Amino acid sequence: MRFTFWEDFLALVFPKTCASCKRSLFDFEKTLCKACIARLPITNYHLQPQNNDLVTKIMGLTKPGLVMSFLRFTKKGVSQQLLHLLKYKNKPEIGLELGSLYGHLLLNHGFKDYWDVIVAVPLHPQKMRRRGYNQSEQFARGISEAMNIPFEQLLHRSIYTETQTKKSRIERIQNVAAVFEVAKSRHATSWLRVLLVDDVMTTGATLVACANTLHQSGVAQVDMAVIAAGRY
Question: What is the reported pTM?
């Protein structure tokens, strides 16, 4: 009873609010309220994962698999707001909830047991220390929990690179072409079916570099999923 009293007291003094609209959350709501979840700009890429504009972006740069995005990215839209909070405002729980929502969506559309492992695009240790968490890993862990597929960090980022925001497509591809490697602790990657996860896909350069590294290690299948796709 004591704990319930203190929980009720803290909820009264410091009520949990929706990360998007700032309204108070009900007990059954985690980070986003049901109204904001209903307004998420969900794409239909999971319905055509082999034939969409995201696949076209990476064609010829890596072995194309399924390429999907949970949300449409629009400037000043909900997806940009949530990504900004996730990346820069110390809100890792947003990534977990978005991953959970997407994982359940994928389950409902026939992707059960489709992958052996879920892998996130890694941050360089220097950036990881500064931010405290990897936003892409939070999204990946949310998917992992919802789909009951293990998360494993197969990749390591060995070279620090500056932000790619102002670089051209060719510059982005060149900038990340050799910065990733398979983690030394992972010896057997042959025949793995991997879902590679990132936060945003613009040119696809980072995902391509990661996918090529995984393919070179013997991974059989690399599919891609991001929180949002579009142009900053």
Answer: 0.87
